[in-house]
Amino acid sequence: MGELLKSALGQFRIVSLAEGTSYIILLFIAMPLKYMADMPGAVSIVGRIHGFLFIVFMIALLRVWVEADWKMGRALLAFVASIVPFGAFLFEVSLKKEWHQTYGEST
User: Fold this and answer.
1) What is the pTM for the complete model shown?
2) Does residue 1 belong to any structural domain of this protein?
3) Among 41, 51, 45, which residue's Cα sits nearest to residue 19?
């Protein structure tokens, strides 16, 4: 895990998974609690956390785009993956492959 934190790509992988997880929690736990159990506080709390993580995600995306010399299409695909439910987890497959090719590790 320590190696992941040392590079823009590794940091992006971590932030992407955190943002994707918060999105899933927002959509499939907090939203149903709001509308089916009359618990709007769930969306308020999870929504703020997700909003913060999305901003951190965008900053990490800009950083990895520049530092890893990504093409526009790859950065755009990462953005689109962040707004599609489970997209971050699907995109992680290619991020892990890129990590392995760049750093020669299986992390």
Assistant:
1) 0.91
2) no
3) 51
- Residue 20 belongs to some domain of the structure: yes
- Over residues 13-24, the mean pLDDT reads 98
DSSP string computed for the chain: -TTGGGSHHHHHHHHHHHHHHHHHHIIIIIHHHHHHS--HHHHHHHHHHHHHHHHHHHHHHHHHHHHTT--HHHHHHHHHHHHSTTHHHHHHHHHHHHHHHHH----
Which one-letter amino acid corresponds to residue 57? F
The pLDDT score that the predictor gives to residue 77 is 98
With tokens 């895990």, the residue in question is 1
| The pLDDT of residue 86 is above 80 | yes
Would you say residue 57 lies in a domain?
yes
Structure tokens at 25: 């929690």
Whether 69 maps to a domain, the answer reads: yes
